[in-house]
Amino acid sequence: MPSRLPLPLLLPLAFQTMFDSDRWSEIWQTLSRNKLRSTLTAFGVGWGIFMLILMLGAGNGLANGVNRAFSGWASNSCFIWTQVTSIPYAGFPRGRGFNFNNSDVEAIRQRVPGVDALAPRLQLGGWNGSNNVVYGGKTGAFNVNGDLPDIMRIQGTGITGGRFINEKDVFDNRKVCVIGQRVVDVLYKVDEDPLGTFIRINGVYFKVVGTHKTKATAEMDENQDATIYVPFSTFQRAFNAMNEVHWFAITAKPGVKAGDLEKDIKKLMAERHRVHPDDEMAFGSFNVEEMFDMTNNLFLAITGLGWFVGILTLISGVVGVSNIMLVIVRERTQEIGIRRSLGATPGNITMQILLEALTLTFIAGYIGLVSGVFLLEGISAMGIDSDFFAQPEVDLTVAVVALVVLVVCGLFAGLVPARRALSIRAVEALRSGT
């Protein structure tokens, strides 16, 4: 008879053992014989699973927070604006300021094939410039942007009342506007409907046709609720910005990287505005796709770190289980010898040791798993979140994988003690008890 059985041959025996109440009673008596030792050993396994669930849940919370922070923004978008040249070129000195113009819009559409949505933008007073806006007897300082309807495909804001700017507004140079929630809060009474009212921006009256509120919570969107949108063409006429474009918001077509699009547009604009091809200071840009890729890579790294730390902690606990099972086998040397002398097969002995190790590992790990999930649920229920952390959680797949890891670890924890038990000869075991 072989001294040990291959693991696949133990599966039918394991299935039969699962329904043997005497076997489970014996397992419970063995593990409860020294409660303190079993509890301390189980703590290592439970702590490993607990840390794994906690770190994975925290990583998901970070991912949820960042995704919420940039909700609504097109992930394949970039923004380009003009700055000041740093290299003399074509007879122009360094330090020259310039703006994009209306003809650049058509040039980009014709010569940069990877462009999907293109939204030229104007800002009254420059980046984050505040302008006096008056309604009734109230005055506030807000951002005023001249935009096309395509900006809604790029920027993370949602209409809460009325409508956004449309093509007819742009074509007819209509003096209409869409105001942010902050504007509503400052200029209007609590129950007052702003739709259909007129506000005055730098002496020019605009009819309010819609209200908006940002979907995101990131720093890049912190002033969106204090922004007023007017039609691009109307802005140029009303605020003396004819043939000016302050910056472009662009999205790439499927399969095109926003970074490549950004380079192509900068190259084209440098050519059209006589800027040195190597002048990196002449244009400013912000690549949303690049930022999304960085955050996604960060999430992958955090998830990998969670699995790494959790599994290492679990392995240390499993080693403890294996050591304790070796001690138990040594204590039961005479018992094992008697069983062997009475005809117990190697499969029966092996299965007994494996089930004891698996039971201890599974119970400890399950408690750690449930404790980790309950802690994450408690954090979510308490509303402990921020702009970049929200609703820490683990999905069903992670829980299933963790349970599978538990079972595998339990089996490995019992293999060495099981082999040790099979190496005990019946005669020597009986002599050890005399």
Question: Can you describe what's shown?
Answer:
With 434 residues, the protein is α+β, with helices and mostly antiparallel strands. Helix content is 52%, strand content 17%. The chain has helices at residues 7-17, 21-32, 35-69, 102-111, 167-171, 181-187, 232-238, 258-272, 288-331, 333-341, 346-382, 396-422, 426-432; strands spanning 77-82, 115-123, 131-135, 138-147, 157-162, 176-180, 198-201, 204-214, 227-231, 247-252, 283-287. Helix 9 runs parallel beside helix 12 (396-422). 35% of the residues are buried.
Radius of gyration: 35 Å
Mean pLDDT: 80
Secondary-structure element sequence? HHHEHEEEEHEHEEEHEHEHHHHH
Helix content: 40-55%
Question: Briefly, what is this?
Answer:
This protein is 52% helix and 17% strand. It is of the alpha+beta class and 434 residues long.
Write the layout of secondary structure elements.
Layout: H1 7-17, H2 21-32, H3 35-69, E1 77-82, H4 102-111, E2 115-123, E3 131-135, E4 138-147, E5 157-162, H5 167-171, E6 176-180, H6 181-187, E7 198-201, E8 204-214, E9 227-231, H7 232-238, E10 247-252, H8 258-272, E11 283-287, H9 288-331, H10 333-341, H11 346-382, H12 396-422, H13 426-432
Parallel strand pairs: 4-9, 6-8
Antiparallel strand pairs: 1-10, 1-11, 2-4, 2-10, 3-4, 3-7, 5-8, 6-9, 7-8
Helix pairs in contact: 1-11, 2-11, 3-9, 3-11, 4-8, 9-11, 9-12, 10-13, 11-12
